[in-house]
Known about the structure:
- It is built from 5 helices and 5 strands, in the order ββββαβαααα.
- It is an alpha+beta fold.
- It has a single domain, classed as Alpha-Beta Complex (endopeptidase fold (from Nostoc punctiforme)).
- The chain has a 5-stranded antiparallel beta sheet.
- α3 (118-131) crosses α4.
- The structure holds zinc ion (ZN).
Amino acid sequence: MGDYPKPGDHIFADRGTYDHHGIYVGEAEVTDPSSGKTRKLKHAVIHFGGNNSNIKGKASDAPCRKCFNKHGDPGVTLTCLKCFHKGDTFYKYRYDVSFITFNTTRNGSCTTASCDEPDVVIKRAYAFLHNQNFGDYDFFFNNCEHFATACKTGKARCNQGAAGFGVAGAIVYKAARRLLW
Ligand SMILES: [Zn+2]
């Protein structure tokens, strides 16, 4: 682990059978719900959990002492980087890749679509967070990858559920996967 992502980057963490996606927003302010005091987070991520099974940890777990995330919180949340990746390896999702790259890279790690400027991306992520208007979580039609791509491009996309299951696909994408940091 060397550098941190850049604010506005779409990142995803490898959770084994699926990936969890989010938008890295850099420094952010969080409020302690018990005292009402605000605190600065150095490395914050806005992501779409939707349901408890999508976030490691149980709803009964104590809130994170850094970002006050309660782990089982549904909807769009802002958490520290650690609550996002939970110790799993995480990667940068790539935009504007060629069709050849897209077709030879593991599903759900890149797209041929272009993304918008980081400040636009961050604004969209915060708007979803404040308005909680991303809708209900659905593994195939409204998941965390849709959320992150919607922030990046203004349009939800997903490659994660479409293909890549099964042994053949798994071998190909294990080999093609590259560690970005
Ligand atoms: Zn946290």
